[in-house]
Amino acid sequence: MTRPIEHSERIERVERPLTRGIAKVTGSALGPYQTAVIRIGFAATWLFFLLREFPHRHEMYGPDGPWAWDMAQQLITGNHAFTVLMWSDGRVWFEVVYALAILSSALLMLGWRTRTMSVLFMIGVLSLQNRSIFIGDGGDNIIHLMATYLVLTRCGQVWSLDARRRARARAGTERESDRVGPVLWWVLGLGLAVVTFMGELGRWWLVIFWGLWLAHGLWGAVGRRAPHSELRKLLDVIAHLVHNAGLLLIMVEACLIYATAGWYKIQGSRWQDGTAVYYPLNLDYFSPWPALSELLSSNGVMLMLVTYGTVAVQVAFPFTLINRRVKNVLLAAMIFEHAVIAVVLGLPFFSLAMITADAVFLPTAFLLRLGGWAARARGAVVSRVPLSGLTRRAP
To answer: What DSSP string runs through 292-336?
Structure first.
């Protein structure tokens, strides 16, 4: 006859996985490769968009746009949106903000000073998008949200210049002293003080920016002067909690995007009768390849399957997270679908934003394999450059 389970044993069985979960959440920043992919993906998407629209920047976000500065000021006064472009209606100020948005996107993509660049990246995204809110699409909305969440994450742990600098410092090939970080911190603090004195920021944005500035300063000071102290351990725990909360927000947001999109599609009559995909294929705006669009729209059975399949995948995806294999299959289907949308409908930046949001659910093993392929490809390219140069110099 088996011995009955004691009350203390039952409590221990419940507490043991709970204790392991708490230790994991507070002891490490989860998903380092997933957050790195999100950092690179969203920064690259916004960077490429700004570069493509560089000739049209004045009409989209600047002083030559149909949405005039006075109209934008009236709207922002009512909705309290954040944009530094409302600080001045001068052309020079707009050029400075646009250039800083490009620079911060490039540096965040490379992973240089990711804590600082993530904040500047958020400022650039919010400033430009909130200046002209009527020209964006779903991809812009996703970048808008994810730029805010990225500030909470430690997205430079891997695949970044910051990670390489830390690795070289541990190996002893570089000095551990950091002079660029304090200088950058002081310069941004001086700029924030000037903006505060001018009264350009609202109360909540003052709290957010000064809080971020002080938190980064405290982190850097403790890391240099007392790297092994109890205070540093406490700051590590707080940073891990904030990072993991930000990662959870990104995952929840991605699930909400698909769930709401799927359920709203179910309510539409065109999605119910299976003809919703047909109509955008016959619009000139969404037909960069007219022959391809005509070929696809002429097959009624395939259009019906794609229409119903899109709804089914979007509605089912949040529920598949409990099963890894099914989740990976649907994830691959959604990434393929967005790639097709980028080519067929001519929406590359929307598709890049959605694929990047999907990447938060990619398995770590696949991302490590992908990183290995990228490293080998880069090594092959670098090794061929000197050889090609010697070949050209040969008589």
So the answer is: HHHHHHT-HHHHHHHHHHHHHHHHHGGGGGGSHHHHHHHHHHHHH
Q: What is the pLDDT of residues 38-50, one digit of tens each?
A: 999 999 999 999 9
Answer for the pair 217, 183: CB distance below 8 angstroms, yes or no.
no
Of 333, 334, 328, whose CA–CA distance to 367 is shortest? 328
Q: Tell me how far apart the alpha carbons of residues 240 and 154 are, in angstroms, rounded to a whole number.
A: 8
CA distance linking residue 360 with residue 343, whole number of Å: 23
pLDDT digits (tens, 9 = 90+) for 295-339: 888 888 888 999 999 999 999 999 998 889 999 999 999 999 999
**Among residues 226, 29, 212, which one has the least CA distance to residue 115?**
212
**Cα-only R_g, the chain:** 25
Q: Which amino acid is at 303?
A: L
DSSP string, 178-208: -SHHHHHHHHHHHHHHHHHHHT-S-HHHHHH
CA distance 127 to 233: 36
114 closest CA partner among 164, 50, 189: 164
Question: How many alpha carbons fall within 13 Å on the CB side of residue 88?
Answer: 10
Provide the whole-model pTM.
0.91
What does each C-alpha distance from 389 to 254, 382, 395 come to in angstroms?
47, 12, 12
Is residue 278 within 8 A of residue 297, CB to CB? The reply is: yes
Q: Which amino acid is at 55?
A: P
Structure tokens belonging to residue 46: 């916004």
Q: Say how far apart CA 69 and CA 130 lie, in whole Å.
A: 12
Q: Residue 299 — φ and ψ, nearest 5°?
A: -100, 100
pLDDT in tens, 315-326: 999 999 888 999
Q: How confident is the model at residue 394 (pLDDT cuts 50, 70, 90)?
A: very low
Name the token pair of 14. 């419940």
Phi, psi of 227 (to 5 degrees): -70, -20
Question: Which CA distances in Å does 38 have to 93, 140, 355?
Answer: 30, 15, 9
**Torsion angles phi and psi, residue 228, rounded to 5:** -115, 15
Please provide residue 295's backbone torsions phi and psi, each rounded to the nearest 5 degrees.
-65, -45
Half-sphere exposure of 64 (CA within 13 A, CB side): 7
Q: Is residue 34 within 8 Å of residue 153, measured between CB atoms?
A: no
